[in-house]
Amino acid sequence: MGANPRRRGRQSATQEPVQRSDGGEARLWHLGTALAVSFTVAVVGLAGLAWLAWVLLGLAGYRHHGAPALKDTVSVLQLVFATVAGAGALVALIVAYRRQKITEANSVQDRTRVLNERFTSIAAQLGDAQPAVRLAGVHAMAGLADDWKQNRQTCVDVLCAYLRLPYDPDPGDDADPAARAAFKANREVRHTIIRLIGAHLRPGAPTSWRGLNFDFTGVIFDGGDFHGAEFSGGTVSFDDAEFSGGTVSFDRAEFSGGTVSFDDAEFSGGAVSFWHAGFSGGQVSFN
Question: Is 0.85 topped by the overall pTM?
Fold first, then answer.
């Protein structure tokens, strides 16, 4: 069956992720600078302690009674050695701090690399010829969006892009069984995407996608459940969408803030319900 002309040339579902750096990057002084500063602090501290000891000894009158006693000398030496040991401990602390920050930075880089590899693998699944593989890719992409906050929008964009791909209409009950089965399998993949998006927009979702952008421009909806979804903030576009069969529910959905557009959307067949849907704030257009 030929694809709807309005569906040709839509964006591919296998997009490249936007490279964003995770937090936690190490911003450290050069080791030589850190050690120089540490030793300078230690020397200044030692000089300050020696001066303080000299002042205190003068106040106590020890400097007016000849050479200091052995125990006083030992006490001063203990103070000096304690100060040197403290300086060494400070250096060790700085080195340990640098090692920890470098380890954290490497861990962040490794995690980002693994997430990018997951994205590439999952995007390939979404382009597979087998519906079961694509269905697994849909669930995997949703899971990746939950795990990868920095690129959550990119993962959602890929799922929306899949919905915008060319979509052959229902061939009918009298069509070739293979064509009928292929249509049902593809429809199941698409409805799963819609179901996952709706689930992530409802209150109580373990990971919320509220506030993200959703581009359903030109998507053919022949069923879908957005009941109770909260489209808050971001931009949601149903421009040129076709509601052409099945049942699509926006019951008790909340459209608050951001921009929501149904411009040139076509309602032809099936049932679309906005029962008790709320529109508050932002901009909503049904031109």
Answer: no
